[in-house]
TrEMBL record:
Alphabetized SUPFAM superfamilies for the sequence: Inosine monophosphate dehydrogenase (IMPDH)
Record's protein name: DUF7916 domain-containing protein
Domain of life according to the entry: Bacteria
Organism field: Biomaibacter acetigenes
Domain DUF7916: 6-314
Listed Pfam families: DUF7916
Length: 315
């Protein structure tokens, strides 16, 4: 099995869940995930945030704020819209959304453009929370994630959503029943999300037992009280249940200086992380691109970082 940073475009496009998990295992803690917001204009005009994340070394790209009822990715779906005409240029967005809804290969097209594994956030928000239906973890969106061609889902909570460990656990069970062995399930909290952080390793065990293939925790140094020692204990519990572990930088520190990112990366690797995630809160829905590259360089060196960057479209 090749390591994830050795995979070329055609291999990524053809890979299924079981092989994705195995290529991550084979990479020995050197897998980089970048999360990007796609419902706002991208950092660089004419280049989508997913494409930019891929260009700077991400192996996996998670779409945040993607709405299954309103599928539109700025930087990809708005190409051809003349921004210099002003706000009226956006009048044709609804027609583009309708086209995407009717196109069963829409996400596969986006994956082909980026040449990376694509995932999507689905949030198990509690009852009574006013939240866009197309972004909530429910049966309809789970089936669409599978049918549209995503490689994985991320069950977590954006700030102020009130997502709890209980709603995450319920979400894992619902997702597992629908997705089974066809889509990788990642679940956990990278910050409080309007509630409490998760510190108890047994809670993380329950996520793996319920069906999460990957359990996520905050990277050491990103959440109060989560240091190298605690992260190590949490990851040990996750691994004992047979799941992979992901450490997340999701506290706006993805906009910190490069030396801070390097510290997060090295502590996460020492703790035993299989995947390292960097969030979307740099500027305009993406980490500072050089921080994505710094994370990659810290955990796998320049040789493999440049390999990943250079393999974007090799068939």
């Amino acid at each position: 099995m090749k390591r994830i940073f050795e995979l070329c475009h055609s291999e990524i496009m053809a890979m299924e869940k079981r092989d994705l998990i195995e290529t991550i295992r084979a990479s020995e803690g050197r897998t980089v995930m970048a999360e990007v917001i796609i419902n706002c204009p991208p950092l660089v005009y004419g280049v989508s945030n997913p494409e930019l994340a891929a260009a700077f070394g991400a192996d996996m790209i998670t779409l945040n704020a993607f709405d299954f009822n309103f599928p539109f990715i700025f930087g990809i779906d708005d190409l051809g819209i003349d921004f210099f005409r002003g706000l009226e240029a956006f009048d044709n967005i609804p027609s583009r959304v309708r086209e995407n809804l009717e196109n069963p290969g829409y996400i596969k097209k986006v994956k082909n453009i980026t040449g990376r594994f694509l995932g999507v956030n689905l949030e198990p928000v509690p009852e009574g929370i006013d939240y866009p239906e197309g972004r909530v973890l429910n049966e309809s969106n789970l089936k669409k994630a599978l049918e549209w061609g995503f490689d994985y889902i991320m069950i977590t909570g954006n700030p102020k959503t009130g997502v709890t460990d209980g709603t995450i656990l319920d979400g894992i069970r619902r997702a597992s029943a629908i997705l089974k062995d066809r889509l990788m399930i990642i679940a956990g909290k990278m910050h409080g999300a309007g509630g409490n952080n998760i510190y108890d390793p047994d809670t993380l065990r329950s996520f793996a037992v319920a069906g999460a293939d990957v359990v996520l925790i905050p990277a050491p140094g990103t959440v109060p009280g989560v240091d190298l020692e605690l992260a190590g204990k949490q990851i040990e519990a996750i691994h004992e249940e047979g799941a992979l572990a992901l450490t997340a930088i999701g506290t706006s520190q993805e906009g910190s200086d490069e030396s801070t990112i390097e510290q997060f990366a090295l502590m996460s690797k020492m703790a035993g992380a299989d995947i390292q995630h960097i969030g979307d809160a740099g500027f305009s829905g993406i980490a500072l691109p050089e921080n994505i590259m710094e994370l990659s360089t810290a955990i796998r060196g320049k040789r493999h970082t440049y390999r990943r960057m250079g393999y974007s479209m090799r068939k």
